[in-house]
Amino acid sequence: MRVLVLGSGAREHALVARLASDPETETLIATPGNPGIARMARTLPIDLTNVAAVAELAAAERIDLTVVGPELPLSLGLADRFAADGRLLFGPTAAAARLESSKAFAKTFMARHAVPTARFHVAESLNSARAQIHEGDFGFPVVLKADGLAAGKGVVIADDASAADAAIVAAMADRKFGGAGERLVIEECLNGPEVSFFLVCDGTRALSIGSAQDHKRIFDDDLGPNTGGMGAFAPSPLLDGALEARVMREIVDPVLAGMAAEGHPFRGFLYVGLMLTQTGPKVIEFNVRLGDPEAQVVLPLIDEPLVPILAA
Ligand code: AMP
Ligand code: GLY
Questions:
Q1: Mutation pick for ligand 2 pocket among 287, 296, 299 (CB with most ligand atoms within 8 Å)
Q2: What band does 181 get if pLDDT is binned at 50, 70 and 90?
Q3: pLDDT mean across residues, the chain
């Protein structure tokens, strides 16, 4: 098969390394790629936000399977365009990618399908956000999240009303995250260890490909601000067989069934960010792609060839 990987980070390097070892892979192209990837695959420069350009490149290179690293092209409708072209791509449509690209969608979807998550309100305006903080349904600390994609920077855990107000003003008046801050999700602060759980989904079924935990703080000795992950390890010792079965039953199965029932079957990598609370596992976030750095430790643990699974 002629396989195309989209992206330019360590996650895509890990994907390329994994796909390169599959017997089904005859040709491997990565775009835009990076210097490490270029040692294993042909790289071609492209702007991944230009959906038409990516589709044209896949056609020109007669690509059989396209695997998408980052969320942005998916939220811009890359999978929809490939489907219209009759070309195989592993990743969700823009509507299904809202599980990541709109936290308000993800939360209201979970509420509709009884998926365990932090209690929440969605605020559509600065005044309603302020009013909700004033009503104090969730006490303090309280968590404020920009609705849209904010490159992992859109979450504030506010210890008091003035910190919450500063976060509301930054997102909704100063537009710190641009359009992503037009709506805010305000939610209760949960406690417990965090585990990331990864699945390959075909629209109706989900196959576990493993779990991971990351080291979030920027400096050694767990000091400094939170990041998207400075490093990761897999599998997570916290997600044993019994807990994984519970997460499949209470979270993953209803998500797949709910997305299909709402007309947006989820096909692609599903990343379930979990917090293991005293009342059970709860969803902190969904991502519609592999994690970075988690992909670097999860992918090498998969024994079976990946290409046939992603192309199925
Ligand atoms: P998110 O982008 O939604 O994954 O949030 C980034 C980080 O904020 C998570 O990895 C958690 O550490 C923290 N966080 C998000 N939501 C909550 C919550 N409801 N309670 C406690 N911590 C949270
Ligand atoms: N490591 C977090 C993420 O990929 O979103």
A1: 287
A2: confident
A3: 95
